[in-house]
């Protein structure tokens, strides 16, 4: 699923509800300007590319990937609906995970407004809300 021109701005909260498939290997949520400029790639991996039960975050600038950041806390379960919340400023993304814990990822593009949103992988979007 792709959304273009959605206007997610600093100070707003982005709420996402997803349901990973029963055989989910991974899913990804991207927030940025376009597919070549992604400020935050959020990728929970159940079993993908040699990774198991880890959240991998990264960014893309001009089509070039940055350095991956890995989070060992993995509060996702196959087949179970979950929700997480994202806030950001020009320096950081703040992600509230389904278990209530927090993780941060640097806002490497440094902008305060993004218009591109994309979800891919083995999960179904139940709901999205920006407020």
UniProtKB/TrEMBL annotation:
Can you give the residue ranges of the Galectin domain? 1-131
**Record-linked Pfam families:** Gal-bind_lectin (PF00337)
Q: Which InterPro entries match?
A: ConA-like_dom_sf, Galectin-like, Galectin_CRD
Q: What is the gene called? A: lgals2b
User: Can you cite a GO biological process for this protein?
Assistant: sprouting angiogenesis
Q: Which UniProt keywords apply?
A: Lectin
The protein in question is named Galectin
Example of a GO MF term:
galactoside binding
A GO cellular-component term linked to this record: extracellular space
Q: Which residues form a coiled coil?
A: none
